[in-house]
């Protein structure tokens, strides 16, 4: 059965055409700045991919489920947007709208590195920290918005967060947090090796991880620091959920061992009862940056067959 999965992020709208679970085509458009144009941009993506029997949408932000109302998100314009209703009118096929973290988790648990586990956490580490919870083989959404642990309070009076609060976990563990550490270091050590390495480029999390890969010791130390702060938060999540596996996605999470190594060490050390239990495996996500779109498409297939209650 062919379906289309669409991932609406802060900068791009990515669409994939799926035959069963195989991606056969993909397209990318810029995210519209006007909330009123979001549904239209999904319609455009569906048109460019040639249409399908069902359409799923994952969107970065809070989504009321199963109604598919985009409540709010710090990176996509729009509030209380009835996206599922709008798309049903435009497309006339079964539609499902969920958060991009939930659709990515659906992909990971169905065909990615969470396959075969009943209890999984997906934690995305990129511009911020997002996540999704799988309990007993099904997504757990709380009343709709569960998994927003990037905004757990981590540091009282800490750095300003994109959400408007201060000291959230993602203010110390994210691409921008890594960039902020490097920016502070460079301004204090203008003649150091990291200043030279970063002199021709904007200081982003990616630039710092590249400097670390190139062997710069300071950059490596900063990546390790962010990995350790990431691990402390993971330890809290493991204490709450006791998952069988933690799957880590997102741009920074996907760089692998330089982040996950320190995260694992800190989490193993900080976990309560650490001497009497095993830390669950903490793995890199298997599906890369397309996971949100792929999961939305897989979810749409399930909804078309068995109804919205089945996902
Ligand atoms: Zn926050």
Topology:
Blueprint: E1 2-8, E2 12-19, E3 22-30, H1 38-48, E4 54-59, E5 62-64, E6 69-72, H2 83-91, E7 95-99, H3 100-111, E8 120-125, E9 129-135, E10 138-140, H4 175-188, H5 193-197, H6 205-213, H7 217-241, E11 245-249, H8 257-270, E12 282-284, H9 291-306
Parallel strand pairs: 1-4, 4-7, 8-11, 11-12
Antiparallel strand pairs: 1-2, 2-3, 5-6, 8-9, 9-10
Helix pairs in contact: 1-2, 3-9, 4-6, 4-7, 6-7, 7-8
This protein binds zinc ion.
Description:
This protein is of the alpha/beta class. It folds into two domains: about 1-100 and about 290-310, Nucleotidyltransferase, domain 5 (2-Layer Sandwich); about 115-285, Nucleotidyltransferase, domain 5 (2-Layer Sandwich), CATH 3.30.420. The protein is built from nine helices and twelve strands. The chain has helices spanning about 40-50, 85-90, 100-110, 175-190, 195, 205-215, 215-240, 255-270, 290-305, and strands at about 1-10, 10-20, 20-30, 55-60, 60-65, 70, 95-100, 120-125, 130-135, 140, 245-250, 280-285. The strands form three sheets. A five-stranded mixed β-sheet has the order 3-2-1-4-7. A five-stranded mixed β-sheet has the order 10-9-8-11-12, covered by helices on one side. Helix 1 packs across helix 2, helix 4 runs antiparallel to helix 7 and helix 7 crosses helix 8 (about 255-270). It starts with a strand and ends in a 5-residue tail after the last helix. The mean pLDDT is about 95. The structure holds zinc ion. The site of zinc ion has 5 residues, from loops.
């Amino acid at each position: 059965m062919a379906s289309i999965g669409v991932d609406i992020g802060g900068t791009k709208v990515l669409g994939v055409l799926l035959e069963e679970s195989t991606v056969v085509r993909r397209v990318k458009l810029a995210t519209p700045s006007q909330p009123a144009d979001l549904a239209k941009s999904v319609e455009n993506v569906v048109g460019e991919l040639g249409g399908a029997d069902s359409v799923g949408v994952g969107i970065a932000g809070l989504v009321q489920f199963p109604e598919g109302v985009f409540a709010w998100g710090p990176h996509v314009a729009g509030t209380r947007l009835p996206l599922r209703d709008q798309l049903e009118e435009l497309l006339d096929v079964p539609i499902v709208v969920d958060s991009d973290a939930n659709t990515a988790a659906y992909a990971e648990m169905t065909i990615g590195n969470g396959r075969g586990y009943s209890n999984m956490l997906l934690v995305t580490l990129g511009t911020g920290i997002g996540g999704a919870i799988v309990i007993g083989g099904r997504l757990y959404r709380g009343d709709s918005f569960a998994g927003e642990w990037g905004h757990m309070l981590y540091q009282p009076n800490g750095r300003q967060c994109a959400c408007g609060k201060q000291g959230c976990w993602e203010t110390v563990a994210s691409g921008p947090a890594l960039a902020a550490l490097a920016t502070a270091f460079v301004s204090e050590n203008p003649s150091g090796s990291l200043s030279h390495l970063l002199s021709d480029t904007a200081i982003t999390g990616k630039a710092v991880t590249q400097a670390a890969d190139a062997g710069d010791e300071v950059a490596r130390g900063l990546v390790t620091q962010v990995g350790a702060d990431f691990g402390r938060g993971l330890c809290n999540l493991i204490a709450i959920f006791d998952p069988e596996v933690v799957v880590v996605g997102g741009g920074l999470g996907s760089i692998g061992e330089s982040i996950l190594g320190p995260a694992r060490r800190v989490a193993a050390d900080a976990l309560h009862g650490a001497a009497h239990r095993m830390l669950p495996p903490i793995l890199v996500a298997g599906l890369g940056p397309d996971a949100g779109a792929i999961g939305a498409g897989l979810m749409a297939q399930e909804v078309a067959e068995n109804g919205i209650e089945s996902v």
